[in-house]
Amino acid sequence: MEIFIGCVAGFVAWFVIQYFVAGFYIIDQNQRALITTFGRADRLGEATTLDLPLAEALVPDEQERYCYPQVRVVQPGFYWKWPWQQVHRVSIATATMNMAYDPDEPQANKGGTILEAVTKDQLNIGLDGQIRYGVSEANLYAYLFGVKNPIAHVMGYFVSVLRERIANFEAPPIPQVMVAGETQTDTTVNFGVSINDLRKNLRDLNEHMDRECRSSAARYGMVLDASLITGIDPPPEVESALAAINTAHNQVSSDISLAQAAADQKIVQSKRAVEIETLKAQAEIEPLERMATQLESLKQNGSGVLKAYVRNVRMSLFGRSEQAFVEVDS
After folding, report:
1. Category of 45 on φ-ψ map: left (φ > 0), alpha (ψ -120 to 50) or beta
2. Which residues contact 237 (CB under 8 A, 6 or more apart)?
3. What are the tens digits of pLDDT across the range 257-313?
4. Cα(320)–Cα(316) distance, integer angstroms
5. For residues 154 and 214, what is the distance between their CA atoms, to the nearest angstrom?
6. Which residues, including other chains, have CB under 8 Å from residue 174's CB and lie 6 or more apart?
7. In contact, 127 and 176? CB cutoff 8 Å
Protein backbone atom coordinates (compact mmCIF):
# COMPACT_ATOMS: atom_id res chain seq x y z
CA MET A 1 0.00 0.00 0.00
CA GLU A 2 2.77 2.40 0.91
CA ILE A 3 4.50 1.63 -2.40
CA PHE A 4 1.32 2.44 -4.31
CA ILE A 5 0.89 5.72 -2.44
CA GLY A 6 4.53 6.59 -3.12
CA CYS A 7 4.09 5.88 -6.84
CA VAL A 8 0.99 8.03 -6.99
CA ALA A 9 2.70 10.86 -5.10
CA GLY A 10 5.72 10.65 -7.39
CA PHE A 11 3.50 10.73 -10.48
CA VAL A 12 1.61 13.76 -9.16
CA ALA A 13 4.88 15.53 -8.34
CA TRP A 14 6.25 14.73 -11.79
CA PHE A 15 3.04 15.91 -13.46
CA VAL A 16 3.01 19.19 -11.52
CA ILE A 17 6.65 19.90 -12.28
CA GLN A 18 6.40 18.84 -15.93
CA TYR A 19 3.18 20.58 -16.88
CA PHE A 20 2.64 23.38 -14.41
CA VAL A 21 5.97 24.59 -13.06
CA ALA A 22 7.63 24.08 -16.44
CA GLY A 23 4.78 26.03 -18.02
CA PHE A 24 6.25 29.35 -16.89
CA TYR A 25 8.39 31.11 -19.49
CA ILE A 26 10.13 34.46 -19.99
CA ILE A 27 10.31 36.62 -23.12
CA ASP A 28 13.41 38.85 -23.21
CA GLN A 29 13.40 42.50 -24.26
CA ASN A 30 14.82 41.79 -27.74
CA GLN A 31 12.40 38.91 -28.30
CA ARG A 32 8.84 38.44 -29.37
CA ALA A 33 6.87 35.19 -29.20
CA LEU A 34 3.94 33.44 -30.81
CA ILE A 35 1.82 30.84 -29.00
CA THR A 36 0.35 27.82 -30.78
CA THR A 37 -2.38 25.66 -29.29
CA PHE A 38 -2.33 22.13 -30.68
CA GLY A 39 -0.22 23.56 -33.53
CA ARG A 40 -2.58 26.44 -34.38
CA ALA A 41 -1.44 30.01 -33.82
CA ASP A 42 -3.54 32.33 -31.67
CA ARG A 43 -5.13 34.53 -34.34
CA LEU A 44 -6.73 37.97 -34.14
CA GLY A 45 -10.14 37.16 -35.60
CA GLU A 46 -10.29 37.25 -39.40
CA ALA A 47 -7.66 39.99 -39.79
CA THR A 48 -4.87 39.41 -42.31
CA THR A 49 -1.64 41.12 -43.27
CA LEU A 50 -3.45 42.74 -46.21
CA ASP A 51 -5.06 45.05 -43.64
CA LEU A 52 -1.64 46.36 -42.59
CA PRO A 53 0.41 49.17 -44.22
CA LEU A 54 3.18 46.71 -45.13
CA ALA A 55 0.84 45.14 -47.74
CA GLU A 56 1.04 48.35 -49.81
CA ALA A 57 4.44 47.19 -51.11
CA LEU A 58 2.82 44.17 -52.80
CA VAL A 59 1.55 44.33 -56.34
CA PRO A 60 -2.07 43.14 -56.88
CA ASP A 61 -1.16 39.62 -58.10
CA GLU A 62 1.06 39.08 -55.03
CA GLN A 63 -1.55 40.03 -52.45
CA GLU A 64 -3.44 36.76 -52.88
CA ARG A 65 -0.28 34.66 -52.50
CA TYR A 66 1.10 36.50 -49.48
CA CYS A 67 -2.06 36.81 -47.39
CA TYR A 68 -1.19 35.70 -43.85
CA PRO A 69 -3.38 35.81 -40.71
CA GLN A 70 -2.60 38.32 -38.00
CA VAL A 71 -1.65 36.62 -34.75
CA ARG A 72 -1.29 37.65 -31.13
CA VAL A 73 2.31 38.63 -30.44
CA VAL A 74 3.61 38.00 -26.93
CA GLN A 75 5.54 41.00 -25.64
CA PRO A 76 8.52 40.82 -23.22
CA GLY A 77 7.54 39.59 -19.78
CA PHE A 78 6.86 36.56 -17.54
CA TYR A 79 4.06 34.19 -18.65
CA TRP A 80 2.56 30.75 -18.18
CA LYS A 81 1.21 28.36 -20.77
CA TRP A 82 -0.86 25.19 -20.84
CA PRO A 83 0.89 21.89 -21.48
CA TRP A 84 -0.67 21.63 -24.95
CA GLN A 85 0.65 25.02 -25.97
CA GLN A 86 4.03 25.77 -27.52
CA VAL A 87 6.09 28.98 -27.43
CA HIS A 88 7.88 30.12 -30.59
CA ARG A 89 10.47 32.76 -29.70
CA VAL A 90 11.90 35.15 -32.29
CA SER A 91 14.69 37.70 -31.92
CA ILE A 92 13.77 41.09 -33.36
CA ALA A 93 17.28 42.52 -33.03
CA THR A 94 18.66 44.07 -36.20
CA ALA A 95 21.49 42.04 -37.73
CA THR A 96 24.07 42.75 -40.44
CA MET A 97 25.27 40.31 -43.07
CA ASN A 98 27.44 40.39 -46.17
CA MET A 99 25.24 40.55 -49.26
CA ALA A 100 27.25 37.72 -50.83
CA TYR A 101 26.40 35.25 -48.05
CA ASP A 102 24.34 32.25 -49.15
CA PRO A 103 22.55 30.62 -46.17
CA ASP A 104 22.01 27.38 -48.09
CA GLU A 105 25.63 27.13 -49.23
CA PRO A 106 28.02 29.20 -47.08
CA GLN A 107 31.05 28.38 -49.29
CA ALA A 108 29.44 29.94 -52.35
CA ASN A 109 30.43 33.39 -53.63
CA LYS A 110 34.03 32.97 -52.46
CA GLY A 111 33.03 32.11 -48.95
CA GLY A 112 30.29 34.71 -48.80
CA THR A 113 32.58 37.68 -49.50
CA ILE A 114 32.13 38.64 -53.18
CA LEU A 115 28.88 38.56 -55.16
CA GLU A 116 29.35 38.20 -58.90
CA ALA A 117 27.12 39.90 -61.46
CA VAL A 118 27.12 40.66 -65.20
CA THR A 119 26.72 44.18 -66.58
CA LYS A 120 24.90 45.17 -69.76
CA ASP A 121 28.20 45.14 -71.72
CA GLN A 122 28.91 41.54 -70.61
CA LEU A 123 31.50 42.48 -67.99
CA ASN A 124 31.75 40.21 -64.95
CA ILE A 125 32.08 42.31 -61.81
CA GLY A 126 32.40 41.58 -58.11
CA LEU A 127 30.16 43.33 -55.58
CA ASP A 128 30.95 43.91 -51.94
CA GLY A 129 28.56 45.31 -49.36
CA GLN A 130 26.34 44.76 -46.38
CA ILE A 131 22.63 44.43 -45.74
CA ARG A 132 20.84 45.16 -42.48
CA TYR A 133 17.78 43.07 -41.72
CA GLY A 134 15.40 42.10 -38.94
CA VAL A 135 12.20 40.20 -38.23
CA SER A 136 8.91 41.98 -38.85
CA GLU A 137 6.89 41.99 -35.63
CA ALA A 138 3.74 42.69 -37.64
CA ASN A 139 4.15 39.52 -39.71
CA LEU A 140 5.57 36.85 -37.40
CA TYR A 141 3.29 34.23 -38.94
CA ALA A 142 5.04 34.50 -42.32
CA TYR A 143 8.47 34.30 -40.68
CA LEU A 144 7.66 31.22 -38.59
CA PHE A 145 5.25 29.29 -40.82
CA GLY A 146 5.26 30.92 -44.26
CA VAL A 147 8.61 29.58 -45.53
CA LYS A 148 11.07 27.03 -44.20
CA ASN A 149 14.12 29.30 -44.19
CA PRO A 150 13.10 33.00 -44.44
CA ILE A 151 16.63 34.41 -44.58
CA ALA A 152 17.45 32.19 -47.58
CA HIS A 153 14.36 33.42 -49.42
CA VAL A 154 15.15 37.05 -48.60
CA MET A 155 18.77 36.75 -49.73
CA GLY A 156 17.71 34.99 -52.93
CA TYR A 157 15.17 37.72 -53.65
CA PHE A 158 17.73 40.45 -52.91
CA VAL A 159 20.41 38.92 -55.13
CA SER A 160 18.02 38.37 -58.04
CA VAL A 161 16.79 41.98 -57.90
CA LEU A 162 20.36 43.31 -57.64
CA ARG A 163 21.64 41.27 -60.58
CA GLU A 164 18.67 42.28 -62.71
CA ARG A 165 19.29 45.94 -61.92
CA ILE A 166 22.99 45.72 -62.76
CA ALA A 167 22.33 43.85 -66.01
CA ASN A 168 20.00 46.62 -67.20
CA PHE A 169 21.55 49.64 -65.50
CA GLU A 170 21.87 52.81 -67.53
CA ALA A 171 23.36 56.05 -66.34
CA PRO A 172 20.87 58.87 -65.67
CA PRO A 173 20.44 61.48 -68.45
CA ILE A 174 23.16 64.10 -68.68
CA PRO A 175 21.94 67.06 -66.63
CA GLN A 176 21.41 70.54 -68.02
CA VAL A 177 23.84 73.17 -66.71
CA MET A 178 23.65 76.96 -66.59
CA VAL A 179 26.41 78.67 -68.56
CA ALA A 180 26.44 82.46 -68.71
CA GLY A 181 22.77 82.57 -67.82
CA GLU A 182 21.77 80.07 -70.53
CA THR A 183 20.83 76.40 -70.24
CA GLN A 184 23.26 74.12 -72.04
CA THR A 185 23.98 70.39 -72.13
CA ASP A 186 26.91 69.16 -70.09
CA THR A 187 29.75 68.32 -72.45
CA THR A 188 31.50 65.86 -70.13
CA VAL A 189 32.82 62.90 -72.11
CA ASN A 190 31.30 59.51 -71.31
CA PHE A 191 32.82 56.36 -72.78
CA GLY A 192 29.74 54.29 -71.90
CA VAL A 193 31.56 51.80 -69.65
CA SER A 194 28.88 50.30 -67.42
CA ILE A 195 31.13 49.76 -64.40
CA ASN A 196 31.99 53.46 -64.39
CA ASP A 197 28.29 54.33 -64.51
CA LEU A 198 27.61 51.97 -61.60
CA ARG A 199 30.42 53.39 -59.50
CA LYS A 200 29.27 56.97 -60.09
CA ASN A 201 25.67 56.07 -59.21
CA LEU A 202 26.14 53.84 -56.17
CA ARG A 203 23.72 55.95 -54.15
CA ASP A 204 20.97 55.54 -56.76
CA LEU A 205 21.65 51.79 -56.88
CA ASN A 206 21.35 51.48 -53.09
CA GLU A 207 18.14 53.52 -53.05
CA HIS A 208 16.69 51.34 -55.82
CA MET A 209 17.43 48.20 -53.80
CA ASP A 210 15.77 49.69 -50.72
CA ARG A 211 12.61 50.45 -52.72
CA GLU A 212 12.47 47.02 -54.36
CA CYS A 213 12.96 45.15 -51.08
CA ARG A 214 10.20 46.89 -49.14
CA SER A 215 7.88 43.99 -49.93
CA SER A 216 10.08 41.48 -48.07
CA ALA A 217 8.21 42.16 -44.81
CA ALA A 218 4.90 41.21 -46.41
CA ARG A 219 6.42 38.29 -48.33
CA TYR A 220 8.61 36.58 -45.75
CA GLY A 221 8.16 38.45 -42.48
CA MET A 222 11.65 39.96 -42.66
CA VAL A 223 12.53 43.62 -43.03
CA LEU A 224 15.51 44.67 -45.14
CA ASP A 225 16.32 47.81 -43.20
CA ALA A 226 19.05 49.02 -45.56
CA SER A 227 21.53 47.86 -48.16
CA LEU A 228 24.94 49.38 -48.67
CA ILE A 229 26.97 48.42 -51.72
CA THR A 230 30.49 49.61 -50.98
CA GLY A 231 32.62 48.16 -53.78
CA ILE A 232 32.33 47.27 -57.46
CA ASP A 233 35.45 45.65 -58.88
CA PRO A 234 36.15 44.47 -62.45
CA PRO A 235 37.81 41.12 -63.20
CA PRO A 236 41.64 41.19 -63.01
CA GLU A 237 42.09 40.61 -66.75
CA VAL A 238 40.36 43.89 -67.67
CA GLU A 239 41.37 46.00 -64.70
CA SER A 240 44.44 47.50 -66.43
CA ALA A 241 42.44 48.32 -69.58
CA LEU A 242 39.72 49.90 -67.51
CA ALA A 243 42.29 51.98 -65.64
CA ALA A 244 43.65 53.27 -68.97
CA ILE A 245 40.15 54.15 -70.15
CA ASN A 246 39.44 56.01 -66.91
CA THR A 247 42.72 57.91 -67.17
CA ALA A 248 41.90 59.02 -70.71
CA HIS A 249 38.37 59.90 -69.63
CA ASN A 250 39.64 62.05 -66.79
CA GLN A 251 42.18 63.82 -69.05
CA VAL A 252 39.59 64.61 -71.73
CA SER A 253 37.07 65.74 -69.13
CA SER A 254 39.70 68.02 -67.58
CA ASP A 255 40.59 69.58 -70.96
CA ILE A 256 36.93 70.13 -71.81
CA SER A 257 36.28 71.70 -68.43
CA LEU A 258 39.21 74.09 -68.84
CA ALA A 259 38.09 75.08 -72.34
CA GLN A 260 34.53 75.58 -71.14
CA ALA A 261 35.73 77.72 -68.23
CA ALA A 262 37.85 79.89 -70.57
CA ALA A 263 34.92 80.33 -72.95
CA ASP A 264 32.58 81.22 -70.10
CA GLN A 265 35.08 83.79 -68.84
CA LYS A 266 35.36 85.43 -72.28
CA ILE A 267 31.59 85.55 -72.62
CA VAL A 268 31.25 87.24 -69.24
CA GLN A 269 34.01 89.75 -70.07
CA SER A 270 32.35 90.58 -73.41
CA LYS A 271 29.02 91.16 -71.73
CA ARG A 272 30.64 93.42 -69.14
CA ALA A 273 32.40 95.43 -71.90
CA VAL A 274 29.11 95.92 -73.75
CA GLU A 275 27.45 97.08 -70.53
CA ILE A 276 30.25 99.61 -69.85
CA GLU A 277 30.13 101.09 -73.36
CA THR A 278 26.34 101.30 -73.17
CA LEU A 279 26.56 103.23 -69.91
CA LYS A 280 29.13 105.63 -71.42
CA ALA A 281 26.87 106.34 -74.40
CA GLN A 282 23.94 106.96 -72.09
CA ALA A 283 26.06 109.37 -70.06
CA GLU A 284 26.88 111.39 -73.19
CA ILE A 285 23.30 111.43 -74.45
CA GLU A 286 21.73 112.45 -71.14
CA PRO A 287 22.91 116.18 -71.18
CA LEU A 288 21.79 116.60 -74.78
CA GLU A 289 18.34 115.19 -74.01
CA ARG A 290 17.98 117.50 -71.03
CA MET A 291 19.01 120.55 -73.12
CA ALA A 292 16.53 119.60 -75.82
CA THR A 293 13.79 119.32 -73.21
CA GLN A 294 14.71 122.73 -71.79
CA LEU A 295 14.72 124.38 -75.23
CA GLU A 296 11.36 122.85 -76.06
CA SER A 297 9.95 124.25 -72.82
CA LEU A 298 11.32 127.74 -73.65
CA LYS A 299 9.87 127.59 -77.16
CA GLN A 300 6.43 126.86 -75.76
CA ASN A 301 6.59 130.16 -73.76
CA GLY A 302 7.06 132.20 -76.93
CA SER A 303 9.63 132.90 -79.63
CA GLY A 304 10.95 135.96 -77.75
CA VAL A 305 11.92 133.83 -74.74
CA LEU A 306 13.91 131.48 -76.90
CA LYS A 307 15.72 134.40 -78.60
CA ALA A 308 16.52 135.94 -75.22
CA TYR A 309 17.92 132.59 -74.01
CA VAL A 310 20.14 132.28 -77.09
CA ARG A 311 21.33 135.87 -76.63
CA ASN A 312 22.22 135.25 -72.99
CA VAL A 313 24.13 132.14 -73.92
CA ARG A 314 26.09 134.08 -76.53
CA MET A 315 26.89 136.85 -74.07
CA SER A 316 28.14 134.28 -71.60
CA LEU A 317 30.37 132.72 -74.22
CA PHE A 318 31.70 136.16 -75.29
CA GLY A 319 32.50 136.98 -71.69
CA ARG A 320 34.67 133.87 -71.31
CA SER A 321 36.44 134.18 -74.65
CA GLU A 322 39.64 136.14 -75.32
CA GLN A 323 39.00 136.71 -79.04
CA ALA A 324 35.83 136.87 -81.06
CA PHE A 325 35.33 136.91 -84.80
CA VAL A 326 32.23 138.81 -85.84
CA GLU A 327 30.77 138.61 -89.28
CA VAL A 328 30.32 142.08 -90.87
CA ASP A 329 28.09 142.74 -93.80
CA SER A 330 30.02 144.33 -96.69
Report:
1. left
2. none
3. 777 887 888 888 888 888 888 888 888 788 777 777 777 776 777 667 767 777 777
4. 7
5. 11
6. 185, 186, 188, 190
7. no
